[in-house]
Design a protein that fits this description.
The protein is of the alpha/beta class. The chain is 44% helix and 15% strand. It is built from 13 helices and 14 strands. The strands form three sheets. Strands 2-9-8-7-6-3-4-5 form an eight-stranded mixed sheet, with helices on both faces. It has a four-stranded antiparallel sheet with strand order 10-11-14-13, covered by helices on one side. A two-stranded parallel ribbon has the order 1-12. The longest helix has 26 residues, at 284-309.
């Protein structure tokens, strides 16, 4: 190697998704591989009006440097929404605005993880978290995900043997599996982590993409001292604005702010101002209902077609929100092969192995439904069904 790169970057995996998106985004490809919110559901006019108002009425401030913690009215909006949606009471001072919620993972790694520290993560786990935390060279331990949340016996064992610094998880409509934790599991996880005095990093990127039934309380509600939540406007307003946040006890926010100052001084202030103006002058609930209605109908259609056409040996999760369905193929079938065969027919799925930091998962695949229209779903699922049947012969 010509350049002497740090051990930390050499040990960090490249995002497999970002690599394969280069091929799957060709216009002729029906792609279920990505994780993009549907662009037709971005309120371009509303955001454009908000941008115009902010720049015209307060451009001098909105285009200036700002505070590391973020625009206070936006932090107040988030605290207020937590209270209304989750009955979770936090102060605006416990919220810090980040450049997308992905940045939270980097900042959490910076302030908590020393080289070699143990970190617990779901199996399968969010690839972006594996990547972000890998930069701090932890030793990962995986907690298998069951249909209603993590295997709590495994979690207890990891806590008692490895003393991880934190457990990172996505309890609502997880990426990649689409699984949502049951209320019982939420209580159980909180009890176990409280007892062990271990941090829970609760990534709630998909919390608002909830299709039906009761909205369950976040795990943080039962562990105010050890619970850290991360949230995002990417899926409900716009991913390109790169607006997310971290919610944690003030002592943690203080250290996050120091590490953020070193990283980028503060999050894009113009984006913060535009999004706050947008949220204050538009009906976010109505907008999210629209998104959920579309995603639910696409998800239902996909599940119905899978049930009709896929060989019965192939199982799938049944999400109640979010953007992904998770497939498990029978023994002997490989999702990498499925990916290759499907690409020959211009259909893209995401092989599951990148979501397993320690290998495995080659019989799993992630299917995205938020960004494909009904015709593409019908055509794509039929092609996948044909390949799966062929492979099972
Ligand atoms: N967490 C999860 C679970 C995600 O799926 C994503 C987006 N793929 C993120 C965090 C990061 O999203 P953003 O930075 O746009 O908020």
């Amino acid at each position: 190697m010509k350049y002497s790169f740090s051990k930390r970057i050499q040990k960090t995996p490249k995002s497999f998704i970002r690599e394969i998106l280069k091929v799957t985004q060709r216009p002729e490809v029906i792609s279920f591989a990505g994780g993009l919110p549907n662009p037709d559901l971005i309120d371009i006019q509303g955001i454009s009006r908000a941008a115009q108002t902010v720049i015209e009425q307060d451009g001098k401030n909105a285009l200036q440097y700002s505070t590391t913690e973020g625009y206070l009215p936006l932090r107040e909006f988030i605290a207020d929404r937590y209270r209304k949606r989750y009955d979770l009471c936090v102060k605006p001072e416990e919220i810090l605005i980040t450049n997308g919620s992905q940045q939270c993972l980097d900042l959490i790694g910076k302030i908590f993880i020393n080289n070699g520290d143990a970190v617990a993560i779901e199996r399968p786990g969010y690839l972006g978290a594996i990547q972000a935390l890998s930069l701090y060279q932890p030793e990962f331990f995986s907690v298998p995900l069951e249909n209603d949340g993590p295997d709590t016996e495994e979690l207890k064992q990891i806590l008692s043997e490895e003393f991880p610094k934190l457990f990172y998880a996505v309890p609502n409509s997880q990426n990649p599996s689409g699984i949502t934790y049951s209320e019982e599991k939420r209580h159980e996880v909180a009890d176990i982590l409280n007892e062990a005095e271990t941090l829970f990093v609760e990534d709630d990127a998909y919390g608002e993409l909830h299709f039906s039934g009761k909205v369950m309380p976040p795990v943080k509600k039962f562990m105010p001292e050890y619970g850290i939540m991360t949230g995002s406007f990417s899926k409900i307003v716009s991913p390109g604005m790169r607006m997310g946040w971290i919610c944690a006890p003030e002592e943690i926010i203080d250290k996050i702010a120091t590490s953020k100052q070193a990283a980028d001084l503060h999050s894009n202030y113009l984006s913060q101002r535009i999004i706050e103006e947008y949220l204050r002058t538009n009906d976010l609930d109505a907008h999210i209902s629209k998104i959920n209605a579309v995603y639910k109908s696409r998800c239902d259609l996909m599940l119905k077609l899978m049930d009709e056409m896929f060989p019965e040996e192939v199982s799938h999760t049944t999400p109640n929100g979010g953007m992904f369905i998770w497939l498990t193929l029978p023994d002997g079938l490989s999702s990498t092969k499925l990916f290759e065969k499907a690409m020959e027919k211009n259909v893209a799925v995401l092989p599951g192995h990148p979501f397993y930091f320690d290998g495995g998962g080659d019989n799993t695949a992630r299917i995205n439904y938020s960004n494909a229209d009904e015709e593409s779903i019908r055509k794509g699922i039929e092609i996948l069904a044909g390949i799966l049947k062929e492979q099972l012969k």
